[in-house]
Amino acid sequence: MSEEIPVDWGQARALAYEAGRRAAGPAETISLPDADGRTLAEPLRALTDLPAFPTSSIDGWAVRGPQPWRVVGRVLAGGVADPLDEDGTCVEIATGAMVPAGADALIRIEESTRDADGLVSGEPRAVPEWRLPGEEAHQGEELLPAGTAVDPAVIGVAATCGYESLSVRARPRAGLLVFGDELLTAGPPGAGRVRDSLGPQVPGWLRRCGAVVEPGAIAGPVRDTLEAHLEAVRGALATADLVCTTGGTMHGPVDHLHPALAKLGAEYVVNTVAVRPGFPMLLARVPGPDGRTRFLAGLPGNPQSAVIALITLVAPLLAGLQGRPAPRLAMVEASAPVPGRGGFTHLALARLDHDGRSAAPVGHVGSAMLRGLSHAHGFVVVRPGAQAAAGDLVPFLPLPLVAGERP
Q1: For residue range 342-366, what is the model confidence (pLDDT) as tens digits?
Q2: Are the C-beta atoms of residues 283 and 296 closer than 8 Å to each other?
Q3: Which of 112, 256, 272, 357 has its CA 20 to 30 A from that of 221?
Q4: Pick among 3.40.50.300, 2.170.190.11, 3.40.1010.10, 2.60.40.10: CATH of 55-131
Q5: Which pLDDT tens digit goes with each residue over 287-319?
Q6: Which residues form the signal peptide (predicted)?
């Protein structure tokens, strides 16, 4: 494999998503409590009308005909009342109870009276105070499409419909290999060595994109030799659908990732992206002995660049692998000028205001810095050959949320 011309940032995201979509695994059926954070593999449809029967919205009386009404029974939630067959009769009814057939209206208990003979009087409100069958959904109606991220609200809808389990996509398994002899895994940096900040943080970003990352799937620092790289990559790909590596994406004297991929028979999905920061990054398919495709995402060694590579290539890939829609950009107002980066897309760290409508650039945004990232909600996107002035509407790429969380 050889170096390629950098791919446009938007095109790279599309290529990564499509690669994941084509490699998405089969569906599996799991119980409702276990479905949180997963993705619907098929549409969620109403099994019955919702509500399935006329349902009282109040505590009071279900009445028939003109008042006063003679009480002939009571119906509570979970019970079934006999029909009201005669005018001038009523039943006491509780919120959530089934409205008996033949009822004309419901009277609130606090807006009714009962005389010495036990007869009930009162005036119904203008708007009927019961829910009709199908008011929320009709039997067979699609409530949520395939590809919906399952969260507690989705689980609640499924339970309301009567589901006990859901058909969901398998969660991709991800691993991480940290490259670099210069890295420390403990203690403060010094004496020519720097502290590894990607090993502790990348698994969290991967989980927020929906991947499973087990503690044993994180390894490094891997020694700066081709043999060590090959051994580490082969081992990681044996159990993971996706392996992320940090560092070694260039062609320096100790950058062995490209030669390792060549020996593994890998095929680039994307090889370098025209984006700053974040250059260079890559995504490759790696054939497995079982015929199933695995992926390797090469993240740059500089921390902010690595995170940009992750949300540029890995987030769309994982969305595709889970059958979710491709991540989309929001539009916000730039509250300050954001420069362009010539022929490259510029991803500028920014923080949203309290209502999420405008974004302000943050400081400390060097490729090797993380302080700015810790204060940001995402990135203002400035297209190649452009710049953003204060007040311009600009695309905004958010940092990944907790899996299934609503923005």
Answers
A1: 999 999 999 999 999 999 999 988 8
A2: yes
A3: 272
A4: 2.170.190.11
A5: 887 878 899 999 998 999 999 999 999 999 999
A6: none
Q: In terms of CATH architecture, what is 29-49+135-169? A: Alpha-Beta Complex (3.90)
Distances (CA, A) of 330 to 57, 358, 394: 39, 11, 8
Domain boundaries, the chain: 7-25+170-321, 29-49+135-169, 55-131, 330-398
Within 248-387, strands assigned E span 267-271, 273-276, 282-287, 293-299, 330-334, 345-352, 358-361, 378-382
Q: Are 92 and 107 in contact (CB under 8 A)?
A: no
Q: Which residues pair with 105 in a beta bridge?
A: 63
Q: Collect all residues with Cβ–Cβ distance below 8 Å to 71 and sequence separation of at least 6.
A: 61, 89, 90, 91, 92, 118, 119, 120
CA distance 327 to 398: 10
Give the three-state DSSP class for 256. coil
pTM of the model: 0.86
CB 20, CB 319: distance < 8 Å:
yes
Residues 6+ apart with CB under 8 A from 4: 268, 271, 272
Share of residues in the chain with pLDDT > 90 (%)? 82
Domain pair 29-49+135-169 / 55-131, same fold: no
